């Protein structure tokens, strides 16, 4: 698996193969395993997916409980929606600080800060008696903890793979779905049989233990690859392809958050029980766990950008054709499973696609900017959906249409990125007197020279835009 470290010159531009040899040992396997565990605990996605993003994915169960009881007197549906939105948006807002912490103090310190904040947030939420207590604990503090864990681990898996990078990232990201499945069922059971407070405390203890273990065992390759670890690089905004990726992520999150948090409450709105709603939410997360590794696997064989666009389109199609007419438990289970396989496509492909488009060196800075851009949709998406539901007297049709069309719009923008990428490969193939199909989308990328990020080479050889829009090529 050793990589060529040669440097090639193309018309004054530098083509860098920056990956350094990867030893044939268990480090890369360990990185995936620990990434899965982290994602499970952090309510959502990455090398710590299960105990971060996975934990957060269970908020739909908490939301359904809040809306069906009077646990926090005087709190509105909109306020509860903001609690869930804040948990994700704060994790993204803190990303530049987490990136800077990684650069100054290392990955392990960043992860341990995240463990501390996440644990304190869950313990603090267990004593909440007013809605603003939830804003600060389950919303803001939890989001900060998730952000340090997420940012500290998201770039590690791509560093350890030269081939099958998307598959590795998909397996890692599946931890968020696995965690969401486990935590959704566990949280509902604990809320119903013990209490809301003790449900928070138990979740906090479990997440603390697992994430601490992962933080001490995981290993990065930041020094070997020369990762920039910049919190913000304004030069990336000169690159049209990066702007298109940002819009893709923005629209994807508008649809994803609605689907993730609304399904359990929608189930209760059509006459199902709270337990059935939690099962439907759990199956949605099961779908994410099952769907992300295949998305990663076929991304490596069919093209990462191709898969991103296709699966995002299906993520928008399924709510429109299955969720809207779904009124029974069986149909909702089916939708949750099949919709879940593609709902989190963005999280399965974000690191590999950003690497392919922008390169490993600019990956940390580009991801930091991406997380900041996603603050707005993750904060307001569920609030928008519940406001639509309220204005329609409890009818979810408007929210369902909103989720579906946001995904379809996102697919359109990533397809434009695909069109750009094909043109880039055609230009470089013309310079190297070879076929575009023989170009490697990552290692044959022309890197910036003298810090001038994103200058585009102007050479003959690029086919017309319309032709590239419909041309089949692995990218």
TrEMBL record:
<feature type="transmembrane region" description="Helical">
    <location>
        <begin position="396"/>
        <end position="417"/>
    </location>
</feature>
<feature type="transmembrane region" description="Helical">
    <location>
        <begin position="167"/>
        <end position="186"/>
    </location>
</feature>
<feature type="transmembrane region" description="Helical">
    <location>
        <begin position="369"/>
        <end position="389"/>
    </location>
</feature>
<keyword id="KW-0812">Transmembrane</keyword>
<dbReference type="InterPro" id="IPR036259">
    <property type="entry name" value="MFS_trans_sf"/>
</dbReference>
<dbReference type="Pfam" id="PF07690">
    <property type="entry name" value="MFS_1"/>
</dbReference>
<dbReference type="InterPro" id="IPR050327">
    <property type="entry name" value="Proton-linked_MCT"/>
</dbReference>
<feature type="transmembrane region" description="Helical">
    <location>
        <begin position="242"/>
        <end position="263"/>
    </location>
</feature>
<feature type="transmembrane region" description="Helical">
    <location>
        <begin position="331"/>
        <end position="349"/>
    </location>
</feature>
<dbReference type="InterPro" id="IPR011701">
    <property type="entry name" value="MFS"/>
</dbReference>
<keyword id="KW-0472">Membrane</keyword>
<feature type="transmembrane region" description="Helical">
    <location>
        <begin position="305"/>
        <end position="324"/>
    </location>
</feature>
<feature type="transmembrane region" description="Helical">
    <location>
        <begin position="110"/>
        <end position="129"/>
    </location>
</feature>
<feature type="transmembrane region" description="Helical">
    <location>
        <begin position="80"/>
        <end position="98"/>
    </location>
</feature>
<dbReference type="GO" id="GO:0016020">
    <property type="term" value="C:membrane"/>
</dbReference>
<feature type="transmembrane region" description="Helical">
    <location>
        <begin position="198"/>
        <end position="218"/>
    </location>
</feature>
<protein>
    <submittedName>
        <fullName>MFS transporter</fullName>
    </submittedName>
</protein>
<dbReference type="GO" id="GO:0022857">
    <property type="term" value="F:transmembrane transporter activity"/>
</dbReference>
<comment type="similarity">
    <text>Belongs to the major facilitator superfamily. Monocarboxylate porter (TC 2.A.1.13) family.</text>
</comment>
<keyword id="KW-1133">Transmembrane helix</keyword>
<feature type="transmembrane region" description="Helical">
    <location>
        <begin position="135"/>
        <end position="155"/>
    </location>
</feature>
